[in-house]
Amino acid sequence: MTPPDFNTTHWIAWVVLIPLMGSMLCFLWPRRAKLLGMITAFTTAGAVLALYRQLLEQGAIRYAVGGWGAPLGIDLYADGLSVLMLLMSALVGLGVSFYAIGYFKWDHANPAGFWPLWLLMWTGLNGLFLAGDIFNLYVTLELLGLSAVALAGSKDALSGAMRYLLVSLRS
Fold it and tell me: How is the chain split into domains, by residue range?
């Protein structure tokens, strides 16, 4: 059995899907959230590096998720600037993930809620950098804002996040 061809793998989609799947797994298994979060952080950074390599070999990449292009579907677009921003967010994301391990070791707060929200915020950030149209830019900004507000952790922040979600859904 031959391994899949590197150039045909859709790394642009994996850069968004990996932290999203990691967020869901951390939510489903909160006792393993730290381990799953770190695995997801390294895997996301690896996917960003693979996308960078693919960009160097092929040039700018456009991918229609599910085969449905704009205006009906989600278009992801990667060029030099977006991949540079993804590389910086992967570097910062790895740093935040390492810091979180030490922070929650000494702090008595429950870290189980941190990992799903942190990875969901990373998903929104990666999606924002790869958005191929204005609608997906809006959706990823909503996802990013909602998860960032909820990540604050206080009851007021969570209440504000829910109000923000309900107001944005009404618009």
Answer: 6-170
pLDDT, tens digit (0-9, with 9 covering 90-100), for 50-87: 999 999 999 998 888 777 766 677 888 999 999 999 99
The pLDDT tens digits of the residues spanning 2-36 come to 555 555 578 999 999 999 999 999 999 988 888 99
Q: What is the DSSP string of 123-158?
A: HHHHHHHHB-SHHHHHHHHHHHHHHHHHHT-SHHHH
Q: 9: Cβ–Cβ under 8 A, 6 or more apart, which residues?
A: 50, 54
Which of 139, 152, 84, 86 has the alpha carbon at shortest distance from 113? 152
d(CA 33, CA 53): 30
How crowded is residue 125: how many other Cβ atoms within 10 Å of its Cβ?
23
Rounded to an integer, what distance in angstroms lies between the CA atom of residue 159 and that of residue 84?
Answer: 35
pLDDT value, residue 136: 85
